[in-house]
């Protein structure tokens, strides 16, 4: 209250001298230090709820768009065995593994994306120095998704039921990548250049994502474990093989 009473002595022209005038990137927009704390708290809560509502609407539309893109199908001709006839079947254009690691992950992890955007805004506004949010916010959210959400998904399975991983190789690739991400973050922040992220480290970190998608796609199609014969490819196109 003493600080508030001292702030009340300022004139409107003394807004730059207000203690909180330079605390945020966007707020305060106007000189509001002469208002009562209750009025200011109510207005900030309304603005906060309005922002949450906007984010929810955008995330919902974004997720519906991603589902529409990943569910797109196309028709191909498949030869009927022991006949000269073919039939058309619908197959998905997007590979399931690639869709889950790219667009679906981007939509499902929209809360993490908000943390990432806030951290980027903070770093840009803070002369590329880590602020109060920093990388710990993103790491904490990712750790929560990795540990808590997976634990809840396993715990809610009834005792008389079970679940099976269809693509074990893809699961191993993504599990290793999840653990490697924490190890790599520790290396670039605490071992190599402590507290500093070099440009080459940032570029290499960004390149890890397309590498992960490619390796997961190879594991999903099992290119290294089986051979795709010309006969199977011809049957999908409806070409008769003697």
From TrEMBL:
Residues of the signal peptide: none
PANTHER family (alphabetical): CALX-BETA DOMAIN-CONTAINING PROTEIN, SODIUM/CALCIUM EXCHANGER
The entry's keywords: Antiport, Calcium, Calcium transport, Ion transport, Membrane, Transmembrane, Transmembrane helix, Transport
Domain Sodium/calcium exchanger membrane region: 44-217
The organism's place on the tree of life at top rank: Eukaryota
Residues annotated as transmembrane: 42-62, 137-158, 170-187, 199-219
Lineage start: Eukaryota, Metazoa, Ecdysozoa, Scalidophora, Priapulida
Subcellular location: Endomembrane system
Protein name: Sodium/calcium exchanger 1-like
Keyword Oxidoreductase among record annotations: no
Source organism of this protein record: Priapulus caudatus (Priapulid worm)
Gene3D superfamilies cross-referenced by the UniProt entry: NCX, central ion-binding region
Entry membrane topology: Multi-pass membrane protein
Keyword Calcium listed: yes
